[in-house]
Design goal:
With 192 residues, the chain is mainly alpha-helical. Helices cover 70% and strands 3% of the residues. The protein contains 7 helices and 2 strands, in the order αααααααββ. Helix 5 packs antiparallel against helix 7. It is elongated and about 65 Å long. Keywords: Cell inner membrane, Cell membrane, Membrane, Transmembrane, Transmembrane helix, Transport.
């Protein structure tokens, strides 16, 4: 099975209600990411055509792309954590035996989860500050705080994902990078 097939057919490795929630969040993230990228492409192409054909840009195009970039970025961090696609520096980790890698992965997942929840708290504080100032986007006239709601949602989902990864590593024999991705490298060498 290729990486694309495994991501398309994601199935949580968690039991019971946790698995159901994990699968549901995965589907929602996939839809958000796909729609966000498609809308951004459509908005950008439409704006370019409008500029060159009609001589005027779409007034709200930049603001809309800003909203979509924030949405894609913060929906994407949970997606990357779920599929084990996050950046890893693994020289020490790779040198450890399986038990050491498992212990280190649990510590990494729990620490990262705590950082995500810490950032969640501060992103909520930031949004409340923006809300109190009453700023709005010039073209769309949307309150600025609304476009940043994706930030705490992304941190929440990512924090939960890393917490679930730690739980998965506590309860399984193998070492997991995420709830559905077992640690290991694919053979990337090709025969000549």
């Amino acid at each position: 099975m290729t990486d694309e097939e495994s991501e398309k057919n994601y199935h949580s490795g968690l039991p019971g209600i946790l698995g159901i929630i994990d699968n549901a969040i995965s589907k929602i993230e996939s839809v958000i990411l796909a729609l966000g990228v498609l809308l951004m492409a459509l908005n950008t192409v439409t704006n370019v055509v409008a500029r060159f054909v009609f001589g005027n840009s779409i007034m709200f195009s930049g603001e809309l792309n800003r909203i979509l970039i924030i949405m894609i970025t913060f929906a994407g961090i949970g997606y990357a954590a779920r599929h084990g696609r996050h950046i890893r520096m693994s020289a020490i980790y790779d040198a450890l035996p399986v038990g050491g890698r498992k212990a280190l992965m649990i510590c990494i997942a729990l620490f990262t989860s705590m950082i995500m929840f810490f950032l969640l708290y501060y992103s909520v504080v930031y949004i409340l500050d923006l809300y109190s100032k009453g700023r709005v986007l010039p073209s769309l006239s949307l309150p600025v705080w609304i476009i940043y709601l994706w930030v705490p949602m992304g941190f929440l989902i990512t924090g939960i994902q890393y917490l679930l990864t730690a739980i998965k590593n506590f309860t399984s024999h193998d070492v997991y990078l995420s709830t559905g991705v077992v640690d290991g490298y694919k053979d990337t060498e090709t025969e000549v």
